[in-house]
Amino acid sequence: MTRRASILGGAAAIATTFVVFVIPFIFIVLMAFKDRQQSALRDFSWPTGFHLWENVAEVVKTRNWMMITAFINSTIITVVSVTLLVIFAAMVGYVLARRKTRWNGLIEFLILAGLMVPPAVVPTIWLLQGLKLFGTLHGMILIEVAYNLPFSIILYRAFVATIPRDLDEAAIIDGARPLDVFFRIVLPLLWPVTVTNIVVQSVGIFNDFTNPLYYLPGNANATVQLTLYNFQSQFSTAYNLLFTNILLITIPPLLVFLFFNRQIVAGMTAGAVKG
């Protein structure tokens, strides 16, 4: 590839990123600063007055402080789900990479099926109702873990393959038990891919809209994405409050990506080449 082609490709990538990500975010910020009358125009005009703090206060207080409840629920679901994902995926990925049995092919097929096959909503609701977990936070946590586990397992399996088996054998010779080998030797070495998994899954689960809509009904169980319904109806929408709400729930994932961008890339590529 010539230098000119490389420069043109980089410029095209920057332009595409600006159009797809930066311009919509600027539009969200502008709308959050407007009052209800000006925001109804839905254009890129400069705000005639700065109403951001008024809009934020209204968003937070709406429907008996639902935004606070939603942030608490989303945080609980995200933290617990990601913790379980890291533990379970790391253990499964370690076993798949270290132990070659006749069942590995079937297990890997089921993991790939979990990535490709869309979830069946109605049977899942019936199952949750039978287990008395429908409409509960711990039921929602199990759903998030089940839906995101295949991707996490694939990440860990690829990374564990780059860790020499000699470390396991040396630890066993020194008297370490299998769980000691995993938690004391292998798991600390998985830190790069663990950071990647934590960040990617945290952002995905925190921003999840569809699953809480299906499996977590009720105002007391609202998550941050479901609060968007507070400011739109069939006949009227408060666009200034709606976009202020969008801005509030966008900032946490955005900060996570900005601070952990390098770790995400490093973790995703760490298992690409087997050592």
UniProtKB/TrEMBL annotation:
The chain crosses the membrane at residues 7-33, 70-97, 109-128, 140-160, 181-206, 238-260. SUPFAM superfamilies: MetI-like (SSF161098). Keywords: Cell membrane, Membrane, Transmembrane, Transmembrane helix, Transport. PROSITE patterns: ABC_TM1. It comes from the Bacteria. It is found in: Cell membrane. The keyword Transmembrane applies. One of its GO terms (cellular component) is plasma membrane. This is Raffinose/stachyose/melibiose transport system permease protein.
